[in-house]
């Protein structure tokens, strides 16, 4: 595989990391706004939602990043880029909804989860298929 074919998934990786970094800055801003100083993580519902978005995104990135790269290497880097971009859009939608009200996070979560499942099961399918059809 030519290294140039992996440039787009690399860009998606960096954008996902930038989104995560931005969410972390949001936690810092919310700490000041709601007067929740470290190490506290509770005390104001608005702060807690901002904090949970950041933490949940970290929890999801642990699954997302390997799936993005495995899919891009073993299936198709262009489709990996598309699905990775959809995941990012879903996470942004999740954050935006959750900031407004906890119950409004579902649509963004569903979008990101479907993209993640496509990456995961697409890779698994292609790897298993490769065992039988070399």
UniProtKB/TrEMBL annotation:
One of its GO terms (biological process) is leukotriene metabolic process. It is a multi-pass membrane protein. The chain crosses the membrane at residues 6-30, 111-132. GO terms for molecular function: glutathione peroxidase activity; glutathione transferase activity. InterPro entries: MAPEG (IPR050997), MAPEG-like_dom_sf (IPR023352), Membr-assoc_MAPEG (IPR001129). It is found in: Membrane. Keywords: Membrane, Transmembrane, Transmembrane helix. GO terms for cellular component: membrane. This is MAPEG family protein.
């Amino acid at each position: 595989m030519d290294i140039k074919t992996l440039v787009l998934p690399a860009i998606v990786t960096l954008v996902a990391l930038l989104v995560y970094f931005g969410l972390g800055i949001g936690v810092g801003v919310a700490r000041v706004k709601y007067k929740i100083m470290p190490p506290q993580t509770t005390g104001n519902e608005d702060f807690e939602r901002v904090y949970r978005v950041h933490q949940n995104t970290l929890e999801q990135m642990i699954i997302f990043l390997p799936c993005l790269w495995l899919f891009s290497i073993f299936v198709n880097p262009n489709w990996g880029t598309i699905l990775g971009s959809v995941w990012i859009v879903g996470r942004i939608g999740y954050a935006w909804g959750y900031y407004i009200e906890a119950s409004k996070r579902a649509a963004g979560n569903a979008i990101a989860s479907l993209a993640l499942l496509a990456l995961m099961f697409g890779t698994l399918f292609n790897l298993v298929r490769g065992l039988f059809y070399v």
